[in-house]
Amino acid sequence: MRVAVTGGGGFLGSHLCEALLRRGDSVVCLDNFSTGDPENIAHLLSDPAFEFHHADVSVSVEIRGRVDAVAHLASPASPPDYLRQPLETLAVGSRGTENALRLALRHNSRFILASTSEIYGDPLVHPQEEAYWGNVNSIGPRSVYDEAKRYAEAVSAAYRRTHGLSVGIARIFNTYGPRMRPHDGRVVSSFITQALTGEPLTIYGDGTQTRSFCYVDDLVRGLVALLDSSEMGPFNLGNPVERTVSELAEIVRAMTGSASAVKYHPLPVDDPGRRRPVITRAREVLGWQPEIDITEGLRRTVAYFSARPDRLGASAAAIRGGQDDTVPLSAPAITAGTTPQAIPGPATAVTDLAPSAVSVPPSVSDS
Ligand SMILES: NC(=O)c1ccc[n+]([C@@H]2O[C@H](COP(=O)([O-])OP(=O)(O)OC[C@H]3O[C@@H](n4cnc5c(N)ncnc54)[C@H](O)[C@@H]3O)[C@@H](O)[C@H]2O)c1
User: Which residues does the UniProt record annotate as the domain NAD-dependent epimerase/dehydratase (predicted)?
Assistant: First the structure.
């Protein structure tokens, strides 16, 4: 099978590309590295079954030759990323999704969408099952992400109804693992970076808000199961074990042997209080459930972060300053069409951190 993966240079996308190659598929990866990192896929470039196209999927998604499936993952995903790129986030959730759907339609191929638990907003129902419609502030700062994904779901469902396209929707809950950027502003990466550099672990609110953390390999197995099915869902994909943010901080401190203190900051606007997926549908229909517990998942993630000490110092400083990297607010340079195999430098070179012209709100606890 030849699979197009948009956002394939990102955290989840690169793991998905790898999993597909491992089982014998060919992969066409499209990315503009607005939040991804060329290092994530550098080891795949020599594989003849892997093709990289530097492309902004909000502009176009063009691929020569047959495409059997499209996995649409392109989108900024962490709060600092989408708050810094609000219009790009709306564009990739709307135009980018439409472009990816049209590609699938041209080839009559399977299409899967990486949606998010954020479509539930600050949920009034707990735990969240797919039948819940959500509680989203349509004009708050986070709406650029939440509403973009809600539109992406709506347009995907409309392509299924209107054109009979085989569409599958994954509502992904917090996922963590190797290849998260240390300064991406998500709670797991921030805590590990802070613990390993002796910085205080920043908790927003009183730490009693909950999240459920899914290890990346588990999540990718779920995406592949959805890709291989003809089901639409939507399917919650996440780990149903709920933890408070304070609990997570304690686990990370114990695992890294860190003496870092914990520092409390005000809760960001619209930060959801509780999150836990009901995964009965994914379990029964896709035969999927997570297998890797938080201790094992964090052990692997800490090992990945520890092996990159050069990145940690600058990232800890960026987290401390409430600033992220030096990505400009303007839209990234747009390559209409594609440039196979030409990988530019990362848009977010961690080692080049300089005081940013763009002040990013402090890291928040979700993606
Ligand atoms: N990681 C999570 O916990 C999580 C949770 C819910 C949903 N998701 C969804 O999964 C997908 C992947 O998330 P991730 O955690 O890997 O984030 P990520 O930022 O690491 O990856 C996103 C990738 O998309 C690329 N991209 C963004 N806009 C693009 C555009 N216009 N054209 C081409 N490429 C573009 C980025 O450069 C990056 O490589 C996203 O759609 C996200 O919304 C992730």
Answer: 3-238
Residue 345 confidence class, pLDDT cut points 50, 70, 90:
very low
- Among the options 82, 120, 145, 159, which is catalytic? 145
Does residue 268 have a cis peptide bond before it, meaning omega lies within 30 degrees of 0?
Answer: no
Burial class (CB in 10 A: 0-12, 13-18, 19+), 23: exposed
Tell whether the model's pLDDT for residue 269 goes beyond 80. no
| Angle ∠(12,103,97) on CA atoms, nearest 5 | 55
Q: What is the pLDDT of residue 361?
A: 38
Which protein residues touch ligand 1 with a CB less than 6 Å away? Answer: 6-7, 9-13, 30-36, 56-58, 73-77, 81, 92, 96, 114, 116, 172, 174-175, 367
- The amino acid that residue 107 corresponds to is H
Across residues 57-62, what is the average pLDDT? 96
16-48 pLDDT, tens per residue?
A: 999 999 999 999 999 999 999 999 999 999 999
Q: Which domains does the chain have, with CATH numbers?
A: 2-352 (3.40.50.720)
